[in-house]
Amino acid sequence: MFARSFARIARPAASSMKARAFSTGARASAAAGSRMATFATAGAIATGAASYAYFQNAQSPVQADSKPIAGVKGTFSERTFIAVKPDGVQRGLVAKIIARFEDRGYKLVGLKAVVPSKDLAEEHYADLKSRPFFGGLVDYMTNGKAPVVAMVWEGKDVIKQGRVMIGATNPLDAAPGTIRNTYCQVVGRNIVHGSDSYESAEKEIGLWFGKAGELVEWSQANSEWIQSDN
Ligand code: IDP
Ligand code: MG
Prior knowledge:
By secondary structure, this protein is an alpha+beta fold. About 25% of the residues lie in helices and about 20% in strands. It contains eight helices and ten strands. It is globular and about 50 Å long. Inosine-5'-diphosphate binds near residues 128, 133, 187 and 193.
């Protein structure tokens, strides 16, 4: 279908950066981020595929992304894709869900409200394509009755911890205190999504925040109070 590959150059983290390819029909163009000091587009668009490389000013105190898109697994730079689905937005639960991650000390590095295209939703849930509820799931995510609030959170073990905080897919099986146990009753309206593995986080962050400059690197002023060991 569609493919896009990114290659990042001339940056300290570049050695650990994998070239990535995603199917993302809706988002084939590269956009320079507002905080990008330097952006160089290199490559050609061919058969729906855009290849580009960019680098940025490492001096900037707050800057667009300069690490592997899902960070480095097992470190404080690990990242996950969390989304408040349209039912969570309609029900006014965005702030409560954000608060859970903020309260835990995780760092918000990407945030936007978006009505995803059908292509994006289908790619996001590609592993469920053969399931009978797939069409309804895609419609629920894309019909525009409310946006999805898409986020990227960063911190230690955030992929697994995010799933634990969200709870089981079926809210009736979700442990007390989890988001789904606290706010939901049925699997079809379970209000929140979280990446289930590092590979899923790479794919999902790339799909939803794959344009240059959509993720922001910044330092938490209280990080030593969150991260220090004895
Ligand atoms: P997850 O969201 O906990 O990762 P998945 O199995 O990946 O769960 O399913 C993705 C989403 O598809 C669920 O969150 C839910 O919105 C929807 N879904 C899963 N199973 C069902 C079902 O049996 N009926 C309706 N919707 C479902
Ligand atoms: Mg899943």
